[in-house]
From TrEMBL:
Keyword Ribosomal protein: no
Protein name per its UniProtKB record: Lipoprotein-releasing ABC transporter permease subunit
Transmembrane feature ranges: 25-51, 276-298, 318-343, 350-371, 383-400
Membrane topology: Multi-pass membrane protein
GO CC list: plasma membrane protein complex
Sorted UniProt keywords: Cell membrane, Lipoprotein, Membrane, Transmembrane, Transmembrane helix, Transport
Annotated family: Belongs to the ABC-4 integral membrane protein family. LolC/E subfamily.
C-alpha cells in the first residue's frame, strides 16, 4: 500500500463501479465504454493485419516473376559487359544474385488473336538466382535454348491467344526492315515451350519469356540490356537501389520493384492510411464515451469528493483520482482489444473457414479472386501505434470530468447530506 492515495481511491472507484455497489447504470455505461474501446482496437488490428496479408500475398506473387532491383542502360542500349556490372553490384552485401535480361515490348499473334506483351529475354542458367519462378520451374526454363526460338507464356496470355504447348505464335517487334517493296515489319515465329502461373494477373496476361540470345538478335540490342538483382531483404530495395545509383558508373539507371509497381504500391499505402484513420475514429468515439461515464460518476460521488476536500485533499489530488479511474478503464479496454485482435489475426485462417462452413458460403471464391484464403500478417509497427493512440484518447477523455470533480464546492455538496 505504498502507492499514492489518489491511485488507491481511483482504483477503488473502478472496482466499486464494476461491482455496481453504488449505481448499476454507471457500472453498465463504464462497461460499455471499455467494451467499445476493446472492439475498436480489435477491429483496427484485424483490418490492418488482413490488409498487410493481402499486400504480402500480392507482393510475393509479383516478386516471384520480377527481380528486386534492375540495372539498365540509360539510353536503352545493350550493356557492353553485363558480368562486370553484376560484379560491381555484388559488392553491396545485400545483393544475393544477379542475372542478365533483355526487356522489350511486342505484339503476339496466333490466328486472329493479337495481344500486346512484355517480352523478356533471360538466361535460364542465371535466372534461377533472381526469380523464384525460374527456380521452381527449372525444366520449363531449360527448354529455352539459344536459336531454338522457344517462348514461355503466362497462362492468361496463352489463353487469350488460344495457344498451347507446341503451338506456333508470331512475335512482332518495334521498328521494321526496309525492303524494295517498302517497310516490312519485324516478326518471328516462336514455338510455345510451356506456360507459367504466377498468381498475379498483370504478369500472367502480359509476360512472355524467351532466351537472352534470341531476344538480343530479334530486338537487335547486341546483348543484355540490363542486370536483375535479388536482395536478402525485399524491404531494403529502395535503399540498395539508391546506394547502387551512387556507386555504379554513369549512364546506368537503377530501379527497384517499388518504383516498377509504384501505382499499386502507393494505392495500397493510401488505402491503409485511410482505413487507419476511419477505424481510429471508431476508437475515438468509444474512448470519449468515458466522458459521460466519469461525469455521471462525479455527480454520484459529490459527497465523497466533499469529504476528501474537508480532510485536506487538494483539487489536484481529486482530479488525479478520476484521471486514474478513467485511465484504468482505457487501459483495460485497450489491452483487451489488443489481445482479442491478435487472437483473431493469428487464427483468421481457422476462423474464416469455420464461418464459411457454418454459413455455406465462400468469401473468396477461386473463380473471382486470385486467392481463396484470407491472409493475415500482424505487424508491431501497426499494433503499437494503435495501442498508444487508444490510451492517449482515453486519457484525454478523463481531463474534463476530472477537472469538474476538482471544482466541487465541499459546503455546497454537503448541504443536504
Amino acid at each position: 500500500m505504498n502507492s499514492p492515495y489518489e491511485w488507491q481511491v481511483g482504483w477503488r472507484y473502478v472496482r466499486s463501479g464494476r461491482a455496481g455497489r453504488r449505481n448499476g447504470f454507471i457500472s453498465f455505461i463504464s462497461g460499455v465504454s471499455m467494451f467499445g474501446i476493446a472492439l475498436g482496437v480489435a477491429a483496427l488490428i484485424i483490418v490492418l493485419s488482413v490488409m498487410n496479408g493481402f499486400q504480402k500475398e500480392v507482393r510475393d506473387r509479383m516478386l516471384s516473376v520480377i527481380a528486386h532491383v534492375e540495372v539498365f542502360d540509360a539510353h536503352g542500349e545493350g550493356l557492353e559487359d553485363w558480368r562486370a556490372t553484376a560484379q560491381l553490384a555484388r559488392q553491396v552485401p545485400e545483393v544475393q544474385g544477379a542475372a542478365p535480361f533483355v526487356a522489350a515490348q511486342g505484339l503476339l499473334s496466333r490466328g486472329d488473336a493479337i495481344r500486346g506483351a512484355v517480352v523478356r529475354g533471360i538466361d535460364p542458367a542465371e535466372e534461377a538466382a533472381v526469380t523464384p519462378l525460374a527456380a521452381q520451374r527449372p525444366a520449363l526454363m531449360a527448354r529455352l535454348q539459344p536459336g531454338a526460338w522457344q517462348i514461355v507464356l503466362g497462362n492468361e496470355l496463352a489463353r487469350q491467344l488460344g495457344a498451347r504447348e507446341g503451338d506456333a505464335v508470331t512475335l512482332y517487334g518495334p521498328g521494321g526492315t526496309v525492303t524494295p517493296a517498302g517497310m516490312a515489319p519485324r516478326l518471328k515465329t516462336f514455338t510455345v515451350a510451356g506456360t507459367f502461373d504466377s498468381g498475379h494477373y498483370e504478369y500472367d496476361s502480359t509476360l512472355a519469356l524467351i532466351h537472352l540470345e534470341d531476344a538480343a538478335r530479334f530486338f537487335r540490342t547486341g546483348g543484355a540490356t540490363g542486370v536483375q538483382l535479388r536482395l536478402a531483404d525485399v524491404h531494403r530495395a529502395p535503399a540498395v537501389a539508391a546506394q547502387l545509383a551512387n556507386t555504379l558508373p554513369a549512364g546506368l539507371l537503377v530501379r527497384d520493384w517499388t518504383r516498377t509497381n509504384r501505382v499499386w504500391f502507393d494505392a495500397v499505402q493510401l488505402e491503409k492510411r485511410m482505413m487507419f484513420i476511419i477505424l481510429t475514429l471508431i476508437v475515438a468515439v468509444a474512448a470519449f464515451n468515458l466522458v459521460s461515464t466519469l461525469v455521471m460518476t462525479v455527480t454520484d460521488k459529490r459527497a465523497d469528493i466533499a469529504i476528501l476536500r474537508t480532510l485536506g485533499a487538494s483539487p489536484r489530488s481529486v482530479m488525479g483520482i478520476f484521471v486514474v479511474q478513467g485511465a484504468v478503464s482505457g487501459v483495460i479496454g485497450t489491452l483487451t482489444g489488443v489481445a482479442l485482435g491478435l487472437l483473431v489475426a493469428f487464427n483468421i485462417d481457422v476462423i474464416v473457414p469455420a464461418i464459411e462452413r457454418a454459413l455455406g458460403v465462400a468469401f473468396l471464391p477461386g473463380s473471382l479472386y486470385l486467392i481463396t484464403r484470407l491472409p493475415s500478417e500482424p505487424l508491431a509497427s501497426d499494433i503499437v501505434p494503435i495501442a498508444v493512440i487508444a490510451l492517449v484518447l482515453a486519457f484525454l477523455a478523463t481531463l474534463y470530468p476530472s477537472w469538474r470533480a476538482s471544482r466541487v464546492n465541499p459546503a455546497e455538496a454537503l448541504r443536504y447530506e
